[in-house]
Amino acid sequence: MPAQPAARQSRAAVSLNSFFHPRTVAVVGASRKADGIGHRILLALLGSRFSGAIFPVNPHASEVAGLKAFPSLTAVPGPVDLAVIAVPPDVVLAVIDDCAAKQIQAVVLITAGFAETGASGMSLEQQLLEKVRRHRIRLIGPNCFGLMNLDPAVRLNATYTPAFPPAGRVAFASESGGFGLAVVTAAQRLNLGLSGFVSVGNHADVSVLDLLEYWEQDKSTDAILLYLETIVEPRRFRLIAGRVGRRKPIIVLKGGRTAAGQSAAGSHTAALATNETAVDALFTQCGVIRANTLDEFLALATGLSAQPMPHGRRVGILTNSGGPGVLCADSCVAEGLNLPQLSDPTQSALASFLPPTAALSNPVDVIGFATEDQHARAVETMLTADTLDALIIVHVSVRPEDNPPVAAGIVRGIRAARRTSGKQKPVYICWMAEGDLDRTFTMDGETIPTYPHPEIPARIINRALTYTTWRHQPTGQMPRYPDADLDNAKAICSKALSDHGPGWLTTQETRALLAAMQLPLAQGRIAATAEDAVKIAGEIGYPVAVKLASHTILHKTEIGGVRLNLAGEQAVRDAFEAIRARLAQEGKPDAMEGVLVQPMISDGVEVMAGMTRDPLFGPLIAFGLGGIHVEILGDVQFRLAPLTDRDAAEMVEKIKGHRLLQDYRGRPAADREAIEEVLLRLSRLVEEIPEISELDLNPIFALPAGQGCKIVDARIRVEKTSPAV
Predict the structure, then answer these.
(1) What H or E segment, with its residue span, contains residue 194?
(2) How many CB atoms lie within 10 A of CB 369?
(3) What is the pTM of this model?
(4) How many independent structural domains does the chain possess?
(5) Which end of the chain is more exposed for a tag (fewer CB within 10 A), N or C?
């Protein structure tokens, strides 16, 4: 990781120090029952060999687990830095009063029975929150699993599991206690070193974002894992995660992607369902690496925390079996990675010690019975090759007795390459050795991640490259566009709401609003009669398009409301009358406000831009190919407002149809700068006017480079906004 300037710790981060570095811990509710949660927490603290003092609090016992017990917190001698509370919910508020009297500023509330249980629990949680805020106590929970600090100088396990992974440089926060336990247990099995773990429970006070700010400054943490079911503060998340992600990778597994998952999440966290399209946009904008499954989450955690980030897409594969090597190669290509041919000097070096039957291109197949020394030299040769940026090692067990020497050879080769090569490259191992699947590869403080399938490393390398590309890009700017008449735009929306209430703006209002923002509207005027339409067409010049002007009928083509390539007066007159007749036939004669007469635009590529306002995330802006393509192909990129110029550029670059915007089969490239400016002006518009609830610009004709673009059709919906509280 490149060195970053140290940032001043936030107040939130400073206030969390007592959670992770307590000198004394009191366990309130330390039961003598072996299956009691308080008892298990006490045993976990003892089992982790916590460096500080531990005080059980139990009014009905003089001793618990060999430690002197105290009847209350106030009876504990001396200061208490951290209180871990596991008592019934109806007792919690009284215990918080004792914490205040004892001047305890850090509380972990294990107890359930709060907001996750319904209205009465929500009321109790609100009382709890008011009390801790009044006493300036920071609270983790309620309904949580606890926390850990694995620093050898602290060794704090304030959870109710004896599992205690090795110390490392990965911090982990989970909104689910059960999921947190699963990952902590897996970390122990996979030798994934953790710096800290927090189960936030209902996050009534301390949130995931507070923890991000803490770990941002934590010198023991290089990467951050999050399991989330909600995004409570999307804007704050974007700000904090976007800043932290520039220094340390953030890997997120988010539950509740489906309606069933959202319902399940809400049932145990009292959380609101989130818009997954908006979540994806948010994560993209702030550089979050999203995992889709638990296996992928753990794979990314081990792969990105334990190894250097790759500097490029050139991957070498070293295997002792052709089939798995082929599968790994296919996966690399599918992930957009390159498998370059090895240089002649590298192949010659390999040929000097490998069997004559070995394959020396890429993948390199050392053959099933390659020795320890051959593996060591092959690994070193490939890791030091100038043509490779990363190495994947695929081993299939031929004979069980070969596994230990092969593993030793791999470690020797990596260690030798690390000593001699100035450029450190990531290494990933696919260890397909039945009966030896739990083998770990560690050396000189480095863990080499090991996976059961050859497809996994390719996915990790691609994700790592996506992240590093994002991290090294400029953050982007938000143009202000002083030429936009926002006051006029606001007045148009206010008047529309006053005149005809919430709903779609009229064609005239829509065009006036877009004009106020200096958005590039195609020329056109509204005609109330057939003769007006003919007159306007003559002034514009033939051929023209005639379109229904209506704020109640949205899909004009479905009702015959769009007539194109009209070349003369009679054609325009007939088009007007045909549209009017069709509306009368449909029983909607009053829906016609007139027609919009526009010049035909035949050049350029049809694209679209739109916006929908999510109740939690705010304006969500869309871009894709226009016309009917957007509905048929679904080739759309989404980002949250406000957009930066970097966001706008990425939206254009990342649609699958981007090739159509480049010079293609003799067609000139489209004016990308003009498209991006439309997106940025649109972002400014919907940020400034919260009454705009939905917007669709489709199609927009992207003209050849230097000629701009033209918005041909648009619709805008306005709603009354709630007054600020």
Answers:
(1) strand 194-199
(2) 11
(3) 0.89
(4) 4
(5) C
> Does 257 fall in a domain?
yes
* Cα 85 to Cα 22, 82, 366, 459, 579, distances in angstroms: 15, 10, 58, 42, 72
Q: With a cut of 70, list the residues of the chain below it in pLDDT.
A: 1-12, 256-274, 628-632, 722-725
Query: 217: closest CA among 183, 243, 184, 194?
Result: 243
Residues 427 and 534 in one domain: no
- Give the Cα-Cα-Cα angle 682, 556, 523 (nearest 5 degrees): 55
Residues 525-572: tens digit of each pLDDT: 999 999 999 999 999 999 999 999 998 887 888 888 999 999 999 999
> Domain containing 659 — which CATH number?
3.30.470.20
> Residue 688 phi/psi, 5° resolution?
-80, -25
Please enumerate in sequence order all residues whose Cβ is within 8 A of that of 696, keeping only pairs 6 or more positions apart, or say none. Answer: 608, 610, 611, 714, 715, 716
Range of the domain at 55: 11-304
3-state secondary structure of 197: strand
- Using an 8 Å Cβ cutoff, are 218 and 244 in contact? no
Tokens 């099995």 belong to: 189
The CATH number linked to 546 is 3.30.1490.20
Query: Which pair of structure tokens corresponds to residue 636?
Result: 């759309």
Q: Are strands 146-149 and 194-199 parallel, antiparallel or unpaired?
A: antiparallel
Q: Do 164 and 203 reside in the same domain of the chain?
A: yes
